[in-house]
Design brief:
Blueprint: E1 9-13, E2 22-27, E3 31-34, E4 42-43, E5 47-48, E6 56-61, E7 71-78, E8 84-91, E9 95-100, E10 104-106, E11 116-124, E12 131-143, E13 148-151, E14 159-160, E15 164-166, E16 172-178, E17 182-183, E18 190-200, E19 204-213, E20 216-223, E21 234-235, E22 241-250, E23 253-254, E24 259-268, H1 269-276, H2 285-294, E25 299-301, E26 309-311, E27 314-316, E28 322-328, E29 334-342, E30 346-349, E31 354-355, E32 358-364, E33 366-367, E34 372-376, H3 389-399, E35 408-410, E36 422-427, E37 439-441, E38 447-449, H4 451-457, H5 462-475, H6 503-512
Parallel strand pairs: 10-19, 17-30, 21-33, 34-35, 34-36, 36-38
Antiparallel strand pairs: 1-6, 2-5, 2-7, 3-4, 3-6, 7-8, 9-11, 11-16, 12-13, 12-15, 12-18, 14-16, 18-19, 20-22, 22-23, 22-28, 24-25, 24-27, 24-29, 26-28, 29-32, 30-31, 37-38
This protein binds zinc ion (2 copies).
């Protein structure tokens, strides 16, 4: 018999003469003998004549050996005259298993721990000095929503740092897998994995799967470049600028070196109003989203254009995983949607199996500057005189001293509904406000002054008291009570240093009016 003593499958040739007598073949119970490699016919016969004895048989490791060389295959011969002979092959049944330290790693192939995993092959029983071959032998895309698996769809499967490694005394050999650009896409329930195969010559092999996940990409837009605070909207003045940030991370680790391409889409206000069949701004968020989804934007690109300009076209994430761009407003008013594409990632896209540049989208609002517009309602009978509406309007206007004349407007007619920059200041004769309150706000359309109560409670400065009170009630649209500001709670008493809005309130008014 010939063979090797440490292989799972080994070939035994039985070269025998034309001997009379009986042969006995015996073998350990952790192996099986087969007539051919195809394993069609298992050999179970143990007693043979020399004619019957198979010339070749194949050994299959069936149960892994506990120790090296613990398995014997014996052929004994007994001649008619009682002479015996024996030949023995010592075998070890070897099993190879392979496992990855991390079953899921971040896609992108970056030089970071999150994009790598060790893959270790282990020989049982342990044997040192064996060469293990490793390869990325395949990939699969699993569509978990449909229960379909697509094989070998990948185009950037990643790489191994070595295709061979030698087992140590524990029977282990390790290589390192780094991910590629292909990625799962949980948004579409598509999961991408690669197969890493380890093999010990032609003896045994095993495969393990490693999934490639998308990094987290958080887009922050419309950031005031000076303060770092997010802006709700930007003045469409052709020069105002906002900062946008994309932060690429995986398990809170920033991923540097990703190339991010920036583009924007812009819907003109007139396009949105016509899609809405009226005032787009008055729609609910869900209604607005439905219109964005079904209305082509007026512009798509980077600019420069009437819709603004986004620079640079491509930026690289820094050590914290952040890439930035600057948007300079155009002169068009409407909604802008920023989108980024991560050029280092290729997430799965629904379809038979497709790949999609990773897009992150977020909307902002370049809008027109608006004026503060106030309608002053009629005063009740019996207060004018002594009160004078011209003076009241003067004192109210003076509370908004930060606004130039062009931005503060008195309206001739009452508003039925008010936009955020529009106010009705009306008389009330309602009692039951907090003690000392000479006014109350129920929203922009219902800012009330209790003119009669002011006359009853004060003897001097009546117009000034009414004007400050009107400004205070309008101010409740942006602020609650606080000191050294028109928003002080007892403003009708005309406390010192409370005739104007404070800096914080002024900032909120400017934001509401679309900037200076
Ligand atoms: Zn108040
Ligand atoms: Zn204030």
């Amino acid at each position: 018999m010939i063979g090797e003593d440490d292989l799972v499958r080994l070939e035994i040739s039985c070269e025998l003469g034309d001997l009379p007598g009986n042969f006995t073949l015996s073998w350990g119970n952790n192996i099986k003998l087969w007539e051919r490699t195809e394993k069609e016919t298992e050999i179970t016969q143990t007693q043979y004549t020399s004619e019957q004895l198979p010339e070749t048989c194949y050994v299959e490791g069936y149960n892994v050996s506990n120790t090296i060389k613990d398995t014997e295959i014996k052929l004994s011969y007994q001649a008619p005259d009682g002479v015996t002979a024996m030949d023995t092959v010592i075998a070890t049944v070897v099993q190879l298993t392979v496992e990855a330290d991390s079953e899921v790693i971040c896609a992108g192939g970056d030089d970071l721990g999150v994009c790598r995993t060790d893959v270790t092959a282990t020989i049982h029983p342990a044997m040192a000095g064996k060469t293990i071959n490793f390869s990325i032998s395949g990939d699969k895309g699993v569509d978990t929503s449909r229960g379909i698996i697509y094989y070998d769809v990948g185009s950037s499967r990643g790489s191994l740092n070595s295709t061979t490694a030698t087992t140590n005394s524990s029977g282990q050999a390790t290589v390192q897998l780094t991910s590629g650009a292909d990625a799962s896409n949980p948004d579409t329930y598509l999961y991408f994995s690669v197969a890493v195969k380890a093999s010990l010559e032609n003896v045994d092999s095993d495969t393990t799967w490693v999934e490639y996940d998308l990094p987290n990409e958080e887009l922050q837009i419309f950031i005031n470049p000076e303060t770092g605070e997010p802006l709700e909207y930007l003045e469409a003045d052709g020069k105002s600028q906002v900062l946008n940030k994309l932060i690429v991370s995986y398990h809170n680790q920033g991923i540097p070196g990703h190339s991010i391409t920036w583009t924007f889409r812009f819907w003109d206000k007139t396009t949105l109003d016509s899609a809405a069949g009226g005032d787009f701004e008055s729609l609910s968020d869900a209604q607005k989203e439905a219109i964005f989804a079904t209305t082509n934007p007026d512009y798509e690109g980077n600019g420069p254009s009437d819709y603004g300009e986004l620079t640079p076209l491509t930026s690289i994430t820094d050590s914290s995983g952040m890439a930035t761009s600057i948007y300079t407003a155009g002169t068009k008013v409407g909604y802008i949607e920023f989108q980024t594409a991560d050029n280092n990632i290729d997430p799965a896209k629904r379809g038979s199996w497709q790949w999609l540049g990773k897009l992150v989208r977020k909307k902002g609002k370049p809008r027109e500057r608006t004026n503060l517009v106030v309608y002053m309602g009629e005063m009740p009978e019996g207060v004018s005189p002594p009160m004078d509406m011209i003076n009241i309007k003067y004192y109210l206007r003076n509370c908004f001293n930060f606004l130039p004349d062009s931005r503060f407007v008195y309206a001739g007619t009452k508003f039925t509904t008010c936009r955020e920059n529009e106010f009705n200041v009306l008389n009330t004769d309602r009692f039951g406000f907090a003690p000392g309150e000479m006014g109350v706000s129920f929203g922009n359309a219902q800012c009330f002054i209790h003119y009669m109560n002011i006359i009853h409670n004060y003897s001097t400065g009546l117009d000034e008291r009414a004007g400050w009170t009107a400004a205070h009630e309008m101010g409740h649209s942006i602020a609650s009570h606080h000191g050294t500001c028109v928003m002080v709670s007892n403003v009708t008493d005309l406390p010192t240093n409370c005739q104007h809005f404070c800096g914080i309130c002024i900032g909120k008014w400017w934001a509401l009016l679309g900037g200076q």
